[in-house]
Amino acid sequence: MEMLNEQICLQRQKMIDERCRRGRKDIEKLETKQEEGERRSQKLEELNIKMGEILKNHDEKILNHDKRIGKLETVSGDRWNSVVNFTLAGVVGALVAAAMHMLLGG
């Protein structure tokens, strides 16, 4: 009977040892996956920071372009206004000169 109890005890011990080995392997796999997940999370954080910097630089460039385009548009408008003003001044001057010529000497 003692022999039977010893065999049962050894058999149960082997089963427990096998379960422990499988449990350790499972734990090691989970730890590896967790480390991979942590590395990915860190890389994602770094990429998010870089993306934020890129967007900030992009926004600054867009604002700079808007300012420059605004200046160019006002320069064109100012040039057109000055052309119109000089033309009107010339026409008015010519009309006044013609009217004075008719009235005074004509």
Low-confidence stretches: none
Strand content: under 5%
Number of helices: 1
Percent range for helical residues? over 70%
What number is the mean pLDDT? 90
> What gyration radius follows from the Cα positions, in whole Å?
45 Å
**Structural shape:** rod-shaped
Structural commentary:
By secondary structure, this protein is mainly alpha-helical. It has one helix and no strands. The protein has one helix at residues 2-105. It starts with a helix and ends with a helix. The mean pLDDT is 90.
Question: What are the key terms here?
Answer:
1 helix, 106 residues
Question: What's the helix and strand layout?
Answer:
Layout: H1 2-105
In short:
The protein is 98% helix and 0% strand. The protein has one helix at 2-105.
